[in-house]
Specification:
Elements (H helix, E strand, L loop, with lengths): L11 H7 L3 E7 L18 E5 L16 E2 L2 E2 L13 H18 L5 E6 L7 E2 L2 H7 L6 H15 L22 H34 L8 E4 L20 H7 L1 E2 L4 H8 L12 H4 L3 E4 L20 H9 L6 E2 L2 E2 L9 H4 L10 E5 L2 E6 L2 E5 L3 E2 L2 E2 L5 E4 L15 H18 L13
């Protein structure tokens, strides 16, 4: 709700810098931009190229959503490829540039945080990629969700007895042919953005190989907080067939809509902003040829973002200080993921907790207590809690709160105790918008 990090936390960059690592970042910051003290170089990064805000035009990044190099705003954007300037390309190429300079100078171990804005809105993509996908999604979101659901069961990602969540609002076959053309095009742009990001990740991997860094580099890949439903059910009023808009941005200024986000979140409910599975479940891949061996199957111990710091501290043999710049730091509450790299259990002792934009949850063992608009500024709305048995119902389609009121009460009390400890309340009445 502050819109910026506080002074009682340690960033990954600050922790790795103390361990002697080079620290680089390219891409989206969105952790404070009003004061220079909030910028990446002041929070542990040695080099930075990206946007301080939460989103930007991919082809024409402009104030106030512009591009910054280290601590200096970039006025003229020069393409790093043989195509027109595009942020996904530039973020990758500057990351590679930072790594090459380090190798040629000090050749320290490095921490690179590469935060692509793709496929966040606005939907901007190179036409070479867009043309690959136009017409690919004319089958519609209903058929696509069923296909993805069946595929997820076939590869063992989900259990066969977990239900597919309900469709979000609009049936594909109820649309006019013109609307189907538009929605297919929106999804084509979204897919094109992912395609170009994938190409750039491959480019970075090839650069690591050329530098002799690939085998002993831990690569963590994860996506953002659930598919984005911003822009309305069908993605807003922007006309993707407006040729002037295409000429300017090569894309659509809003999003692909809640209906496509529902497909992206298959098989889960809800979206970004929420704490149901569709708002917090993210792919997470750890790749490290020198230390992680393929074991087959899926690793299923739950983990979340706050586990990354203790993981990095263990791997770098770093320590976590009590004080930063005279401010007492909050203790680490995550656990190291290093055991998972050897296919061992995490043995987490504490539950997982969440609170975001009045939505909240606690996950303890097989139980998940979750609610939308449950943690409003006026106080906890305990009648809005839902309870799910994640062993039988990871897709959260059978609310058991009425059947197990004693479990709801106990978990609600644990959540409230945690909320008091971390400062969920009091809440501001006016919020800074998030992206």
């Amino acid at each position: 709700y502050r819109g910026a990090m506080n002074e009682q936390c340690l960033t990954l960059a600050e922790a790795m810098k103390e361990s002697g690592y080079a620290t680089f970042m390219t891409g989206k910051w969105h952790l404070g931009m009003k004061y220079r003290s909030q910028w990446p170089l002041q929070r542990g990064f040695e080099r930075f190229y990206g946007t301080l805000d939460g989103a930007t035009n991919f082809f024409y990044p402009e104030f106030p959503r512009g591009i910054t190099l280290n601590n200096t705003p970039v006025q003229n954007h020069v393409s790093t490829t043989n195509r027109r300037y595009y942020t996904t390309d530039a973020f990758t190429d500057y990351a590679i540039q930072f790594l090459k300079k380090e190798k040629n100078h000090d050749d320290r171990s490095f921490f690179l945080y590469l935060a692509y804005t793709a496929p966040h809105w606005p939907l901007h993509a190179h036409q070479e990629e867009v043309l690959k996908y136009i017409g690919k999604y004319k089958k519609g979101w209903d058929q696509l969700r069923q296909e993805r659901y069946q595929r997820q069961k076939e590869i063992g990602l989900i259990q066969s007895n977990w239900n597919l969540s309900d469709r979000s609002h609009v049936e594909w076959d109820s649309l006019s042919e013109e609307k189907k053309e538009e929605m297919d095009l929106r999804m084509a742009y979204y897919a094109a953005m992912v395609d170009r990001m994938d190409q750039n990740i491959g480019k970075l991997v090839e650069a690591l190989k050329a530098m002799g860094k690939y085998e002993n580099t831990l690569i963590l890949f994860l996506s953002d907080n659930g598919a984005c439903q911003e822009g309305g059910r069908l993605g807003g009023k922007a006309n993707p067939f407006n040729t002037d808009e295409w000429e300017r941005s090569y894309g659509i200024n809003l999003s692909y809509g809640e209906v496509w986000a529902n497909a992206s979140n298959t098989p889960f409910r809800k979206f970004k902003h929420y704490i149901h599975a569709g708002g917090i479940s993210t792919p997470f891949i750890a790749h490290w040829p020198a230390s992680i061996k393929e074991t087959g199957g899926w690793y299923r111990d739950p983990a979340y973002l706050i586990d990354i710091l203790p993981t990095f501290l263990e791997l770098s043999e770093g320590s976590y200080p009590d004080v930063r710049n005279g401010n007492k730091l909050k203790p680490i509450t995550g656990v190291s993921l290093v055991p998972a790299f050897q296919n061992n259990p995490l043995n987490r002792e504490l539950p997982l907790y969440w609170e975001h934009e009045d939505n909240a949850a606690i996950m303890k063992g097989k139980w998940k207590l979750v609610g939308s608009n449950v943690s409003i500024p006026e106080g906890l709305q305990s009648d809005k809690w839902e309870l799910y048995d994640l062993e039988k119902d990871l897709t959260e389609t059978h609310d058991l709160s009425g059947q197990y009121p004693e479990i709801v009460e106990a978990l609600s009390h644990e959540w409230s105790t945690w909320a008091d400890q971390v400062g969920v309340y009091p809440k501001p009445t006016e919020r800074k918008a998030t992206q």
